[in-house]
Specification:
This protein is an alpha+beta fold and 584 residues long. The chain has three domains: 2-33 and 555-582; 38-172 and 460-544, Periplasmic binding protein-like II (D-Maltodextrin-Binding Protein, domain 2, 3-Layer(aba) Sandwich); 220-377, Dipeptide-binding Protein, domain 1 (Alpha-Beta Complex). Helix content is 36%, strand content 20%. Strand 2 (42-48), helix 2 (54-67) and strand 3 (70-76) form a beta-alpha-beta unit.
């Protein structure tokens, strides 16, 4: 009997050997999902705003960077824009920045403005040293026919994808939330493409029914003067020379009654409206226009618009009080569209601001709200409580060519918590809130709530972008920038951070649906293997790093299974042998 048991035991061992031979490679292959460097080549710091889900974006990206040997340090800063503009060439270790997350609006509606605007509306632009870049920008600005524009636009996009000074990672989709008493909410998305919150509400004809106040919840820091940056409440208080209607993208008068362009496209003559007065009853004149543009051209002001204007404007003149003339260095076919869309060319009063030094303008009483700057627009500053709210009152001296607003007051109220904003909208304490990066993710759950109105919209190809410091000793290598682009999990960010509000952009500052999208342009999609290839091209070799295989449940379970088989076989054999001895 014992002989039979021994034969059975030998057969079990042979089966065990066969199972082990098959099982160990299978479990090992399941364990090796990817090689993850135990050490890193270097560490980069991403500077995030505390709002809009930016830290969440960074957290989703962080483990992907680790796979290619890069550690990501995530830092939160209240005012990212100021950090970048004041320290444009410094790395984070030097007191500046390595990477920041920003939003960008590449398109103006007029196709000729698409590429130049998307390139120039970036804070890193003045510090790019690549002469090919600036040659390309000048060629784009001078393109006077569709054939040339398409050709140069294609070349520009190819250059952008190849060099990747900025990685546009997500095409924006957003939501805005209103109290049900707010009227004409369906127009918000259309007008948002061309204006900022106060002016969007005004020009879309929105108002809060049954109250004398429209209150808009915000989380941004707002500038009271219109030429410092995008986050300004200037439009609505102040006005442009002309404006673009979003319905048909036509240019319409605002402070200018009409305009002419010289045959060679270098002289723009604006005829101003008569009888326009500032809210302090002083007359509006061409001197105010020239004063405003002189301010934006002055580098000490720090105006984002100045980056563009200094490359375009040659000189200005005021032949009389109602005529303002701009001479450009060369023909710029999209110049009027830029003036009509950007918030920065809103005209300010010379008689009020001319005695303030440009370098002191940002901290002046008119910029901080200590004093109300006279305006020509729909609202005038009434009261400001720093860190709480800014209240504007209807301008009784608004020119007769403009439609008056229905609400006596407009309030920009700073509210930090998303849940607080929603509850305030439901009670009517807040009229509405533009649900940007952070709020859109919560919008789907609110759509069935009768106490709010949720309006989905896609801004005019707004993009989420990673700004990469071009002067950083590591990021100056374009292959490192490409590796970052390939490692970025845009789909996961859209799903996990924004509940699907957004689609991968692939790196280009333009929608693939645009008529200016070149055939065959290859953009970036998430691909860790390609990211590693780019790191190798940049000179970072993985054989120099110790690589470990992370343990997985498959390997552990396989080991337990093999061990169980061995132990079970030995126990079974021992029991069988014992029985054999007892058998007579």
């Amino acid at each position: 009997m014992f002989k039979k048991e021994r034969t059975l035991f030998i057969r079990c061992l042979l089966c065990l050997s066969l199972i082990t031979t098959l099982l160990v490679p299978i479990t090992a292959s399941l364990a090796v999902n990817e090689e993850v460097p135990q050490k890193s080549f270097f560490t980069l710091t991403i500077v995030c705003s505390p709002e809009f889900g930016e830290t969440d974006i960074a957290e989703v990206w962080k483990p992907e960077l680790k796979k290619i040997g890069i550690d990501l340090n995530i830092v939160t800063v209240e005012d990212v824009d100021t950090l970048v503009m004041e320290n444009p060439t410094k790395s984070y270790e030097e007191g500046g920045w390595d990477i920041v997350i920003k939003g960008a609006s590449p398109e103006l509606g007029h196709p000729g403005a698409v590429i130049p605007y998307s390139i120039l509306d970036r804070p890193f632009v003045p510090f790019v040293k690549d002469e090919d870049f600036w040659t390309m920008v000048d060629e784009l600005a001078a393109a006077s026919d569709e054939t040339t524009l398409k050709k140069v636009s294609g070349e520009a996009l190819s250059w952008w994808i190849d060099n990747l000074p900025i990685f546009d990672f997500l095409t924006d989709k957003r939501a805005v939330i209103f109290n049900p008493n707010v009227k004409n909410t369906d127009k918000y998305g259309l007008y948002f493409d061309y204006t900022l919150p106060m002016e969007t509400v005004i020009k879309a004809g929105m108002y809060y029914e049954g109250k004398d106040t429209y209150t808009y919840a915000e989380t941004e820091v707002w500038y009271l003067l219109p030429f410092f940056g995008w986050y300004t409440c200037g439009p609505g208080q102040f006005q442009r020379l002309l404006w673009m209607k979003p319905e048909d993208k036509t240019l319409v008068p605002e402070l200018a009654e009409s305009w002419e362009i010289s045959p060679d496209g270098t002289v723009y003559t604006f005829h101003l409206k008569k009888d326009v007065v500032w809210s302090d009853e002083e007359p509006f004149t061409s001197a105010d226009c020239k004063f405003t543009f002189d301010l934006m051209l002055n580098p000490t002001i720090g105006s984002e618009a100045g980056i563009f204007l200094r490359r375009v404007i040659d000189s200005m003149e005021t032949p009389d009080e109602l005529t303002f003339v701009i001479h450009t260095k060369k023909a710029v076919p999209f110049f009027l569209e830029w003036l009509a869309r950007s918030c920065c060319p809103c005209i300010v009063p010379k008689h009020t601001l001319e005695n303030i030094k440009p370098e002191d303008m940002a901290n002046s009483d008119y910029a901080t709200g200590a004093k109300a700057c006279p305006t020509t627009g729909w609202y005038v500053l009434d009261q400001m409580v720093v860190g709480d709210y800014i209240r504007f009152k209807r301008n009784p001296l608004l020119h007769s060519s403009f439609t008056p607003v229905k609400n006596e007051y407009f309030i920009l109220k700073k509210v930090g918590e998303k849940t607080t904003i929603v509850s305030m909208i439901k009670t009517g304490e807040v009229s509405g809130h533009y649900a940007g990066l952070g709020m859109s993710a919560d919008a789907p759950a609110l759509k069935g709530d009768p106490k709010v109105i949720v309006v989905d919209f896609s801004p005019n190809n707004w993009l989420k972008t990673l700004h990469l410091n071009p002067n950083h000793p590591i990021l100056c290598n374009k292959y490192v920038r490409r590796a970052l682009a390939y490692s970025f999990p845009a789909n996961d960010v859209a799903k996990k951070v924004f509940s699907g509000y957004g689609e991968p952009a692939g790196g280009a500052p333009l929608s693939p649906s645009s008529e200016y999208w070149p055939t065959g342009l290859q953009t970036y999609t998430y691909d860790i293997s390609k990211a590693k290839q780019m790191m190798e091209k940049a000179g970072y070799h993985y054989d120099l790093l110790k690589v470990e295989i992370p343990p997985t449940p498959y390997l552990e379970y396989g080991g337990f299974l093999i061990g169980g088989i061995i132990v079970g076989t030995l126990v079974g054999f021992a029991v069988a042998r014992q029985r054999a001895r007892k058998t007579p």
